Amino acid sequence: MLRVHKFEVAAAPQGIPIAYKGHYYGRDGESLVALNIQKIEQIRAQRFSRDWSAGIISDASIEDLDPAAISKARELYSAAHSEKSAEIAGWDDMTFLNKAKITIKGKITNTAIILLGKEESEYMISPAVAKIKWILKDAKGTERDYMIATCPFILAVDRIYDRIRNLKYRYINTEFQTLFPEEIDTYEPYVIREAINNAIAHQDYTMGGQINVVEYDDKLVFSNKGAFIPGTIENVLESNAPEESYRNPFLVTAMVGLKMVDTIGSGIRKMYACQRDRLFPLPDYNISSDRVEVTIIGKILDLNYANLLAKNTDLSLIEIELLNRFQLGKPLTDLEMKRLRSRKLVEGKKPNLFIAKDIARKTGQTVIYSRHKGLQNKACEELLLVSLKDHKTLSKTEITELLWPALPDMLNDEQKKNKIRNLLSKLKKQKKIANDTRGNNSIWRLKVKI
Question: 33 has which bridge partners?
Answer without folding.
Answer: 26
